[in-house]
Amino acid sequence: MAISKGLETLKFNDALVGTVNKPIPTKDLVLRLQQLQNELSSLDQDKVDLKSLDKIKDSLINKKLVKHSNSGVQAYCACCLADVLRFYAPDAPYNASQLSDLFGLFYSQFKQLNNQDGPYYHQQTYLLTRLAETRSVVLITDLPNSEALVEQIFDIFYNLASSGTFNSRLEPLACEILSEVIAESSTIPTKTLKLILNKFLANTMVLKKGSTSIPGFKFTLEICNSNADRMSRLLTQLFSETIYEATRGKENEDYDEDKSDINKLLEQLKKLHTLAIELWKYVPEMLSSVMGLIDNELDAEEEKIRITATETIGKMLAIPNSRLNFASAHNDTYMNWLKKPLDKSPHVRSFWVKSAIQVISKKPSIASELSGGLVKTLVDSDERTRLTTVRELSNINPSVFISKVANKTIMNTLGQLVREKHSEIRSSCLQLLGNIYDSNFDLLYKGDPTLDQLVGWIPDDVLKLVYINDKTVNAQVDYTLFELILPFEEDHYKRVTRLLTVVDHLSEKGRSSFYAIVKRQQQLSKAVNQLLTLAEMKQTEEVSSKFEKLINWLVASFPETVDCRAALRQLVKLNNKRYFKLIRVCADMKSDYKTVSSSTKELFNKVSELKNIKIEDEQSVSPHDMLFTVKLLVYRSSVIFYNQNNIGHILKATKDSSNQNNKIAQDILENISTVVPEVLSANISTLVQALLHGEDIGVKDMKAIYQFGKKFPDLLNPGDDEEYIESLKKIAMNGSPSEAKYAVRLLGQVPRSVTREVVVSEIMDEIWPLDLAKANLNTSLATISELFLTDYNVLEDKTKELSSVLASQILLMNQTVGKEDEEDANGWIADNELQNNKDCHSKLLAIQIFVNWLIAVEEAENAAKVAEPVFKLLKSIIGNGGEIVSVKSETYPTPKQYQSRLRLEAGTKLLKLSRYPKYNFLIEQEMVNRLILLIQDENENVRAQFMAKLKKSLTLGLISDRFYPLVFFIAHEPNASLREDTKTWVRSMFKRKLKTNKNELLFEKSFVRMLNILSHHQEFLELLESSKQDSNYIPVLNFALTYISLALDLISNANNISLLYYLASRMKQYRDRQTPELSPNMYLVSDLTQFTIKSLCKHKSWSLATWPGKLTLPSDLYQSIGDSEQLHELSVKSFIPESETKALTDLVRDRIKHLSGSSPQAAAVAVERKRQLEEEEKPKSKKPLIKAEPQRRSSIQRATVNYKEDEDEEYVQ
Predict the structure, then answer these.
(1) Nearest-angstrom CA–CA distance, 451 and 403
(2) Can you tell me the distance from the alpha carbon of 1174 to that of 1162, in angstroms, rounded to the nearest whole number?
(3) Where is the composition biased (Basic and acidic residues) (predicted)?
(4) 7 strand-pairing partners
(5) C-alpha to C-alpha distance for 561 and 567, rounded to whole angstroms
(6) Are 473 and 426 in contact (CB under 8 A)?
(7) At what angle do helices 838-856 and 896-913 cross, to 10 degrees?
């Protein structure tokens, strides 16, 4: 090789292009080109004398070589041309036409790179390497046909990648070449751009199918990473054009063809958004400009565009390990996306929820930023959005939900949604909360107050839903309770511990619901057994009739959303002995837990398959309906919670004072002894033996023995067992008051015998005469109280002296003196605190003794005479607020906490005595009226406990219907929970009575009784007197209206409103029997009630027709007026001053609007107006009032009553 001026010159001098006279054989040509290629490849690019290349550069581009038919010639020629371009770079020694031919040759060689076994594969890889090193490929971007050449090169390499035989080691070289083309091209063909970007879309599809890669994806990834800015501009242009077409098409959407085009454009837009998501995953820098367009889409007019943008951003946020932090890189877009829970479209809001949950599932770290939006969608005005939110929250891992999502607001909102009217929302919410509780139970109540606060309330709120008294709700509660809160658990210790823990953390209301669910089992188990027995009998007309009645009774409590009646009929018609046996086993009190568990599992699995429940040639219910019905039937009738296998562990907990569940175990045992004492049969002997051996078994255990013996006297009959009786005697004399109570009761279950009589006498000899200084005085009083019921004969000759001691030395005298300036109105002594307040306990026991005395002599001739001073005592205690110690006494006053307990005790004992016909007759209306003082007591405990006792007594039908009107006097109750519970109870009882007897008028008659009682209310009388002096009747009318409107809100409907109006108007045909001089007050209430009913009918568009029947008003309250002239005079006279008509109209209208659920502001105005009127200065001189019961005016604080809350709820006892 010659050296000239320091440059290397080409040595090769052979001809490459033959002529006619001197043709070059192909074989020789290949050898010459090979020789030339070897020499050119060895030359240094910067040290070549270009003049020495003039001959060969022109020869190589000759079409005889470039388009030669021999592949070897083409391969070596291409390699030589690549080196020529290398030497002349960055310019090319050829014109545009020649370069087009040159790259055509190159492309033909590239196409063969997929054949690694080809004879010229080495030359083709050399060509690829040289072009990548010298970047000579960029020359195509300046050619006239550059667009076609760009398309071709991309098609070639992407096809090579798709061939599956392209050497992966060459991929980086191909990527470099393609990246250079993108970088240097002034325009990129749309086809090429889509080819590049579509690999991202194809990659999405491949990943969905479970594959790991897609041909050409590496090319795309490298191109985009190397040219992020350039590709970003191209992508932005593509987005802009599509969005413009989509929004422009929206303006012309009236035409069908345009609508079709719009849909196509929207589909194209969705693909672009999918592309953007993939780009964010792999090349987030490319979206720098596009994100502004997506941000604009969030606010686009077209709903579908907003949905697409919302989903896209959500999916981007959900991508883990992205190179960029979305919230930081695109903060404006992120903040705009966070506002989508407030979008005008519920569909957009729902899609935001789905996106947000995906983000939380993939990136829990930013969950707290999204929780605010989730709270908004949980309370969204659109039920679909609320449902979507609850369902999507269920998809979050419970541990992630609690640690990252849950906060007080979200959990409170979910707690409200379980009361949602929309069944699917309620059901989904219960499922969600149940899963959360189940997943976190092992961590609860172990020192993490935050977790306890977030999750611990769930069982209580679920169980309180029972009070709504809705069939569908009750079914949902059952499923949640049996499957998530207290699911089947084979481990005895874990199961019982969970049962005790759950019940221990229930409120009084929640615990009552739980006990009601357990109590239901006994009744339903009998019904289920009866159903199966009837199914196995020969089907006579009588059997079929009984069967239908029983089916109807069972499904009456099942939800109507599922065809439970058809499912039960089909189950019975299947006559599958195995199914029947499994159901019987579950409902059998004697079945052990493991048997019940395995039986339910087998039964549920079988009935969930169509093949197992289908009857030939008959239409079948769906497996869903069958499984739902069978599950509900089995859950409600099976002995699961109080299974006999649980009893031993519960008893163990009751005996271990160090066990944290000791107290609740005692409570549950007490409930078991009351509800299902038969399950105690295997364990009761253990308790009896403990009692025999003098062990301290506790009050709850003694009660369990007593309840068991009460129901199964033959199974618990120690007879003359002296050791047993002796143990009871010791407890009756020396135990605690509660223990003494049950010791005497257990003695009462022992058959009468000489031994028993002797023991009872010994007990009396020990405690009589009473020694008031004895430390265990209250034990003696408790024993005496129970002996009145079991062995009255030993006390009969002592009653005179006993009553004197109780009255003068216990009730009318204080061992503990209170303070006259004591102001704690809500101070309270709970039952478990009485042992530390012995004086108070003595007084309560004294009242109990008097009441038990009356019960003992109820059938005696002198019962009324004996009862007279007792009733006087009870009435005095209530009327004087619990204070009956004389102000002149040295022991005055009685502590206020004692007074509260005493007046509650007097009220509840009055209710108890009213259960007995003879004593009920002695209770005058004046005494019933006085009980309002307890309903409106200043102490919340008194109000709550008395109302609970009243409702329970009325629900069970233990007391007279004349006590029903008292519940309406809850109207001013400041405790919203107590007020709403009572309202719910009234609605429930009202519906229940109508369901039992459609002609039942109990509440309508109670309404007219309530109106009479209202006219005697002391506060009403005082306000009325003030109104007369001030000539301003609004305060008294407003006061009365509170009760009238509450009652109408609870019991009025389109069917009975005419009757209620009739009864109110009939009041003016009677005079007040108790206090005739108060009749005008009664007429004022009558007029106000009629006025209110008319306004209510007008507001609700009810027809107020004349009541067709004739009813007389209660004769104990109303005395008929026989004077026709007086009747006429009363009928035309209005007792509401005409001057008050306008103000009254406004007042009633506001109250009616409030009742019907319109703006609460109107009611607030009315309440404020009432306050202002009542605060006005009143004249100092007043006329003496006519004293009417009740005389002790309650100091209860008035509260704004919201008549709207929970208006559709009911209460179940």
Answers:
(1) 9
(2) 19
(3) 1167-1179
(4) 4
(5) 13
(6) yes
(7) 10
Alpha-carbon distance values, 606 to 194, 488, 567, 601 (Å): 55, 18, 14, 9
Give the Cβ contact number of residue 729 at 10 Å.
21
1068-1106 pLDDT per residue, tens:
999 999 999 999 999 999 999 999 999 999 999 999 999
- Under the banding of pLDDT at 50, 70 and 90, the label for residue 830 is very high
Mean pLDDT of 449-466: 94
DSSP bridge partners of 1119: 1071
- Please give the Cα distance from 968 to 1003 (Å, whole number): 11
Instruction: Please name which of 1115, 1114, 1165 lies closest in space to residue 1143, comparing C-alpha atoms.
Output: 1165
- Mean pLDDT within 545-549: 89
Give 1118's DSSP letter.
Answer: E
202-216, 357-371, 1058-1072: the lowest-pLDDT one: 202-216
Tell me the domain boundaries of the chain: 3-164, 514-644, 983-995+1008-1175
Q: What is the pLDDT of residues 577-620, one digit of tens each?
A: 999 999 999 999 889 999 999 999 999 999 999 999 988 878 88
Q: Residue 3 contacts by C-beta under 8 Å, 6 or more apart in sequence?
A: 9
Cα–Cα distances in Å, from 980 out to 187, 973, 985, 1050, 1051? 74, 9, 8, 11, 15
pLDDT at residue 1163 is higher than 90: no
Would residue 602 be called left, alpha or beta, if left means φ above 0 and alpha means ψ between -120 and 50 degrees?
Answer: alpha
* Residue 818, Ramachandran bin (φ over 0: left; ψ between -120 and 50: alpha; else beta): beta
State both tokens at 187: 């325009």
H or E segment to which residue 1120 belongs? strand 1118-1120
Residues 6+ apart with CB under 8 A from 421: 1208
**CA-wise closest residue to 679 among 718, 655, 712:** 712
How many Cα atoms occupy the beta-carbon half-sphere of 39 within 13 Å?
18
Cα–Cα dist 549/536, whole Å: 16
Name residues whose C-beta falls within 8 Å of residue 523's C-beta, 6 or more positions apart in sequence: none
Name residue, tokens 């002198």.
862
Predicted local confidence at residue 1072, as pLDDT: 93
Tokens of 1124: 């026709």
Q: What is the pLDDT of residue 756?
A: 84
Cα separation, 603 vs 598, whole angstroms? 9
Secondary structure of residue 466 in the 3-state scheme = helix
pLDDT at res. 1200: 35
Q: Which residues pair with 1070 in a beta bridge?
A: 1120
**How far, in Å, CA of 1056 to CA of 1059, rounded?**
5
- How many alpha carbons lie under 13 Å from residue 188 in its C-beta half-sphere? 27
**E strand or H helix at 7:** strand 7-8
Instruction: Judge contact between 82 and 110, C-beta under 8 A.
Output: no
1194 has a pLDDT exceeding 60: no
Q: How many helices (H) and strands (E) does the chain have?
A: 58, 4
pLDDT at position 689, please? 78
pLDDT tens, 733-781?
999 999 999 999 999 988 888 888 889 999 999 999 899 989 999 999 9
Dihedral, CA of residue 986, residue 1038, residue 973 and residue 1199, to nearest 10: 140
Give the residue from 557, 595, 579 showing the smallest Cα distance to 630.
Answer: 579
